[in-house]
Design brief:
Blueprint lengths: L8 H8 L3 H13 L3 E3 L5 E3 L4 H24 L7 H15 L3 H17 L4 H21 L10 H11 L2 H18 L11 H7 L5 H5 L1
Antiparallel strand pairs: 1-2
Helix pairs in contact: 1-2, 3-6, 3-7, 3-8, 4-5, 5-6, 7-8
Bound molecules: zinc ion.
Length: 211
C-alpha cells in the first residue's frame, strides 16, 4: 500500500479472514519496525519517511551494503549465487512489462537476498528494516524516472560472480548513490501527493484509497 494511506483494520480482517485482534497484533509489530505509524486519533497509516529520514536511511545503507557485497565476493566459490541470478530474471520480466509496483518490490528484495547470504541475523534485521523504508521513500520521492537503474544490480552480480570484492563494493556504493540522486530529497523540492504516487504506481490501489 502507498505511503501515508490509512489502513482499514476491518477490511483487512475480512480480506484475510482473520479476527481484528490478529490484524492489530500484526499492525503493532509493523509499527514497531517503523513501517506503520499510529496516529493520535487511533488510525494507523503506512509510514511516509521524511526527506531527512530518507537521507539518513541511505547514509547508513551506503556504509553497510558495500561491505556486505565485499564479504560475499570474498566467499566466491563457497556460496551459490543461483538464487540471485533467478531473481534478476524476475526483475527483467517486470521491467519489460512496465510493472512498477512489482519492480519496486523485486528491486528491494535483491538487496535482501544479498544480506541473507551473509547468514548474519543482525545485518539481516537491519537491512530488512531499512529496505522496507527505502521502498516507501521511493514511492514518496521518486520523480518520473525509475528509481531502479536497470543495469546496476546485474553489474553487482557480475562482480560477485567473478569474486571481485573491490568492484562489487564500488558498484554497490555507486548503485546506492544512483538511487539517492534519482529521488527529490533536497529541501524545497516538490513533495509528491498521494495521487501522484498512485499514478506512479499505476492505478492498482486507487479505489482502495478513495474509500
Ligand atoms: Zn538496488
Amino acid at each position: 500500500m502507498p505511503p501515508g494511506v490509512r489502513l482499514p483494520e476491518e477490511a483487512l480482517a475480512e480480506t484475510f479472514d482473520v479476527s481484528r485482534t490478529v490484524i492489530r497484533q500484526v499492525i503493532a509489530r509493523m509499527a514497531q519496525d517503523g513501517l506503520l505509524i499510529k496516529k493520535s486519533n487511533g488510525a494507523t497509516c503506512v509510514a511516509a519517511p521524511t526527506k531527512q529520514e530518507m537521507r539518513q536511511i541511505l547514509t547508513v545503507r551506503k556504509m553497510v551494503e558495500p561491505e556486505i557485497v565485499r564479504g560475499l565476493a570474498r566467499s566466491y566459490g563457497v556460496l551459490s549465487f543461483q538464487e540471485l541470478s533467478d531473481h534478476l530474471t524476475l526483475e527483467d520480466n517486470a521491467r519489460k512489462k512496465n510493472d512498477r509496483a512489482t519492480l519496486v518490490r523485486l528491486t528491494g528484495e535483491f538487496h535482501l537476498h544479498l544480506v541473507e547470504l551473509t547468514k548474519n541475523e543482525i545485518l539481516i534485521k537491519l537491512i530488512t528494516g531499512l529496505q522496507a523504508l527505502t521502498c516507501l521513500g521511493i514511492l514518496c520521492y521518486a520523480g518520473d524516472d525509475d528509481a531502479c537503474p536497470d543495469a546496476d544490480h546485474r553489474q553487482v552480480f557480475d562482480a560477485l560472480q567473478c569474486g571481485n570484492a573491490q568492484a562489487a563494493a564500488d558498484l554497490m556504493l555507486h548503485h546506492l548513490n544512483h538511487i539517492e540522486e534519482s529521488l527529490s530529497l533536497e529541501d524545497g523540492a516538490r513533495e509528491l501527493t498521494v495521487s501522484k504516487t498512485l499514478d506512479w504506481l499505476s492505478v492498482r490501489f486507487r479505489d482502495e484509497v478513495r474509500r
